[in-house]
């Protein structure tokens, strides 16, 4: 009995005891295997095990503990000399620039004055939109350069001289910016996507001279040069090594063909010959016969070619592009079908099973709103009218891009129906009964169509039926639009117009300006515009309405001795934004970056940096949408104002009716203003109905970037709307005041409490 009781007590601990025993036994057994039964190994000076009688290979030097200090992560402590004055460190905006990354591919096309307007144009229309940088090189420049082409003329039509100058130009201007350089002729058709895919699979650490390898005439059989007609690829490292020898090659190497001359130069001075395959990648080419028809070329070598040569005319270039584009499209559709099949097969193995499969397969599921305010509404349309108009009207004519979109989606629906039911049924459209569409930011544009169709059978019998179809136009590949490079070091000139109604808010503006720009030594200056009413201007010698503001400016200039805050006095009854900017623009250089502010704006460094980055000279202007806080009397109703970071941007809205804030360069404003002056002639009264936004919108070809700006927060204030402004400006001002009172829920609660108080 005692033994049974002891076993019962030890039974819970038996798995633990057995596990520990088994672990110790395996550890001892492994230790005996590691030590072995022979003599012990001796460790060399470098820490490696040396076996007697066995020579150590050279590769053994690469021991992890020796000679690999560069690959070990180390922390570099930050130290700043306290004796040196503080200096703001300006870092690059993009990590790619700071780390020294290069762009991937640069393309150079060799052309001539005779073929610039024919073959070169065809090359530009077929491949230019696939490459981020493409330049055309020619000897003599024609009278007119085709639109959309960047041309470099060297002034000499000799082929060898053209090649020499082209290589020298590429190294001088782009040698430090790109990893790969693809050089082709204008009588070559190249599949741009395959060229881009080729360089993504090649290592940039090697000297690459890749193309169609050809033998020199009467030369060494082992040496090869790349045929220029089929294009060739050079790595950045090879270009850097070749550059010092270009002058020697020009003086010492005699050749008729420029591609042979370049190949001989690379072979003689670098010892690198042309290859047609490298690192498992093949550069496939196809030599096109005379009078060949691309549609009838069925050889596998032609279908897989990266480059085709020679192309005799523009029509043949476009036919080749059509043929290879169709091949790529078929491959893409085939790949999509294979991926959809794989998704279906894998979905059955997931915990949710086939219920989690979305339609269309592979496209993101529709957006699921968390509240009724996030529901995406559907827009109703017919073939003639749209019932959701931009101007707010209930019904408008379907035209332009919307009409083309509706026509295209109806044709796609019929095509899909016929492909599914043919040859049993063939559908034709009689009428679009109802159409609905909405834009889902997670997947694209969704459509629901009620179609009145006529279905015809194989025997010729017809029947009219109504069928509802759903379609999705998914979001395509996202592309990064190349933009000019800008930095955060640009000086910002703040312009603040002030009227008598703004005097109560000037003190807070100046305090925020001093704290966020002057104390932090930000590169931002301030200019004030004192807008006097004619009555106040007459009494300025006795009573200056802006005397208090001028005293505040004097105090700031005493506190910050290196800062000067100028002001400009203007007399007008109607403070037109355009007229005020005309005065300021004449007093500043053309390269000045203006930030047109309002007295309720709270200046901060975060927004000023975005103003610098989003405003690009001769390219883009920035009109931020500030965040307007609601009336605290309606929102909090006597309660304490929420000040935690979690409540930031909660009790307010982005005021889309206000265009008071703007960032733009003086040169861009002067250019647009000149066009406006030529349009309105001497009718200055037109300027009273315009804002700076209207000037850039109608009289400049710049990008107008208007976006919500969370860093631009304004406290609630009831704006005074000048009735002498235009009807549209006055209406926008009134709407801004009304929508800035409170949200609908806050207004409803205020009305409810008022009714409760009145009832009691």
UniProtKB/TrEMBL annotation:
It is a single-pass type II membrane protein. Pfam families: CHGN. It is an enzyme of class 2 (transferase). One of its GO terms (cellular component) is Golgi cisterna membrane. The keyword Transferase applies. Keywords: Glycoprotein, Golgi apparatus, Membrane, Signal-anchor, Transferase, Transmembrane, Transmembrane helix. Its main location: Golgi. The keyword Transmembrane helix applies. This is Hexosyltransferase. The gene is CHPF2.
């Amino acid at each position: 009995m005692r033994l049974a009781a002891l076993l019962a007590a030890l039974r819970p601990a038996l798995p633990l005891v057995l596990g520990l025993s088994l672990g110790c036994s395996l550890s001892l057994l492994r230790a005996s295997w590691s030590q072995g039964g022979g003599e012990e190994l001796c460790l060399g000076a470098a820490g490696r095990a040396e076996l007697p009688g066995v020579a150590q290979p050279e590769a053994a030097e690469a021991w992890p503990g020796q000679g690999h200090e560069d690959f070990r992560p180390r922390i570099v402590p930050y130290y700043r000399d306290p004796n040196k004055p503080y200096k703001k460190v300006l870092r690059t905006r993009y990590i790619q620039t700071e780390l020294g990354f290069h762009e991937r591919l640069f393309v150079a096309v060799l052309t001539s004055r005779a073929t610039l307007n024919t073959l070169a144009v065809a090359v530009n229309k077929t491949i230019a939109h696939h490459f981020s940088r493409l330049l055309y090189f020619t000897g003599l420049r024609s009278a007119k350069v085709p639109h959309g082409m960047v041309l470099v003329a060297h002034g000499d039509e000799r082929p060898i001289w053209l090649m020499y100058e082209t290589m020298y130009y590429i190294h001088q201007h782009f040698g430090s910016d790109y990893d790969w350089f693809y050089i082709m002729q204008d009588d070559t058709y190249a599949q741009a996507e395959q060229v881009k895919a080729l360089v993504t699979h090649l290592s940039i650490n090697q000297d690459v001279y890749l193309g169609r390898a050809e033998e020199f005439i009467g030369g060494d059989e082992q040496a090869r040069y790349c045929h220029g007609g089929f294009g060739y690829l050079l790595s950045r490292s090879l270009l850097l090594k070749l550059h010092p020898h270009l002058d020697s090659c020009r003086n010492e190497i005699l050749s008729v063909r420029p591609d042979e001359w370049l190949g001989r130069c690379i072979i003689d001075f670098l010892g690198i010959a042309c290859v047609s395959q490298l690192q498992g990648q093949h550069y496939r080419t196809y030599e096109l016969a005379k009078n060949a028809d691309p549609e009838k070329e069925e050889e596998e070598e032609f279908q897989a070619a990266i480059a085709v040569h020679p192309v005799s005319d523009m029509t043949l270039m476009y036919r080749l592009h059509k043929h290879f584009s169709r091949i790529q499209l078929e491959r893409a559709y085939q790949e999509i079908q294979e991926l959809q099949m794989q998704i279906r097969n894998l979905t059955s193995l997931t915990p949710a099973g086939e219920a989690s499969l979305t339609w269309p397969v592979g496209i993101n599921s529709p957006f699921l709103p968390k509240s009724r305010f996030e529901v995406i509404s559907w827009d109703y349309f017919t073939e003639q009218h749209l019932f959701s108009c931009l101007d707010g009207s209930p019904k408008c004519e379907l035209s332009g891009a919307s009409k083309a979109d509706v026509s295209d989606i109806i044709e796609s629906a019929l095509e899909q129906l016929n492909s599914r039911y043919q040859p049993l049924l063939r559908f034709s459209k009689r009428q679009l009964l109802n159409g609905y569409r909405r834009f889902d930011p997670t997947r694209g544009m969704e459509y629901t169509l009620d179609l009145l169709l006529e279905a015809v059978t194989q025997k010729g019998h017809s029947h009219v039926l109504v069928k509802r179809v759903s379609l999705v136009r998914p979001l395509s590949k996202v592309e990064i639009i190349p933009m000019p490079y800008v930095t955060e070091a640009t000086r910002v000139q703040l312009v603040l117009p002030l009227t008598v109604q703004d005097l109560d808010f000037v003190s807070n503006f100046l305090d925020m300006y001093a704290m966020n720009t002057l104390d932090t030594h930000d590169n931002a200056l301030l200019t004030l515009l004192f807008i006097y009413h004619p009555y106040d201007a007459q009494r300025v010698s006795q009573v200056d309405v802006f005397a208090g503001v001028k005293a505040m400016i004097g105090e700031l200039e005493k506190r910050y001795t290196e800062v000067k805050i100028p002001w400009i006095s203007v007399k007008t009854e109607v403070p037109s934004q355009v007229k005020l900017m005309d005065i300021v623009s004449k007093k500043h250089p053309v390269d000045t970056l203006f930030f047109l502010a309002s007295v309720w704006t709270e200046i901060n460094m975060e927004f000023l940096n975005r103003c610098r980055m989003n405003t690009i000279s001769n390219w883009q202007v920035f009109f931020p949408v500030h965040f307007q806080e609601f009336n605290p009397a309606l929102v909090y109703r006597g309660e304490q104002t929420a000040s935690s970071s979690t409540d930031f941007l909660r009790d307010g809205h982005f005021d889309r009716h206000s265009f008071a804030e703007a960032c733009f360069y003086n040169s861009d404003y002067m250019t647009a203003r000149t066009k406006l002056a030529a349009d309105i002639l001497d009718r200055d009264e037109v300027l009273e109905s315009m804002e700076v936004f209207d000037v850039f919108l109608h009289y400049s070809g710049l990008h107008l970037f208007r976006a919500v700006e969370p860093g631009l927060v304004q406290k609630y204030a009831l704006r005074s709307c000048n009735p002498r402004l235009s009807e549209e400006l006055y209406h926008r001002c009134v709407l801004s005041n009304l929508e800035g009172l409170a949200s609908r829920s806050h207004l409803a609660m205020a009305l409810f409490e008022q009714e409760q108080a009145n009832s009691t």
